Amino acid sequence: MESLRLPNVKWICPTAPSRPVSSLGGFTCTAWFDVGEISEDGHDDLEGLDASASHIANLLSAEPADVQVGIGGVSMGAAISLYSATCYALGRYGTGHAYPINLRAVVGLSGWLPGWKILRGKIECSYEAARRAASLPIILTHGTSDDVVPYRFGEKSAQSLGMAGFRQAMFKPYEGLGHYTVPKEMDEVVHWLTTRLGLEGSR
């Protein structure tokens, strides 16, 4: 991350806890939450999502109040980042406890949005949630040849965010890209962060 040469940016890169993962036959590995098959009817591990979103928020809450805070990740890290974006908009976790971080940017690479089916209804029920959703910049990127998180789920996630009122959600496809990143994609993320966080004048 430090090779991205962004000025005045502090990177915090936590490692997910170890847990059994259903999609791997119960094999224990580092994972932000349990995940089975990624599908239209897939079950979301809301308890695991809330626990990881809370863990990451706790790490960020130690930062000074005048710092712009963002969350980003790849694959499952992208999923927890997008889930955190919905917690920010709603002002609470799925458990009902208050979400404490004022997010200013969210980056999701080769990931998906957990809970996308019910998001719009939740946001529309609250003026404050709609206002926060509309103000949050989000970038999603996805390779069209991703064989781990199929491209259509990245595209569907971006559409669901837009329909729920996340007006600044941007989706960028990469033709032929698999489940990995390439320099062109990372350059796009750097440009996006520089513009959205106003970093141009801080070099």
For the largest beta-sheet, the strand count, sense and barrel status come to: 4 strands, parallel
Q: Determine the strand fraction and express it as a percent band.
A: 15-25%
Provide a count of the helices.
6
- Can you give the mean pLDDT? 91
Note the overall shape: globular
Number of β-strand runs: 6
Percent of residues in helices comes to 25-40%
Structural class: alpha/beta
Low-confidence segments: none
Please give the alpha-carbon distance between the first and last residues.
17 Å
Strand order of the largest sheet: 3-4-5-6
Computed over alpha carbons, the radius of gyration is 16 Å
Which H/E pattern describes the elements?
EEHEHEHHEHEH
Protein name: Acyl-protein thioesterase 2-like isoform X5
Pfam families: Abhydrolase_2 (PF02230)
If you had to describe this structure to a student in words, what would you say it looks like?
It is a single chain. With 203 residues, the chain is of the alpha/beta class. It has 6 helices and 6 strands, in the order ββαβαβααβαβα. The protein has helices at 46-60, 76-90, 116-124, 127-135, 151-163, 183-196; strands at residues 18-21, 27-30, 69-74, 103-109, 138-143, 169-174. The strands form 2 sheets. A 4-stranded parallel β-sheet has the order 3-4-5-6, with helices on both faces. The protein has a two-stranded antiparallel sheet with strand order 1-2. It is globular and about 45 Å long. The two termini are 17 Å apart.
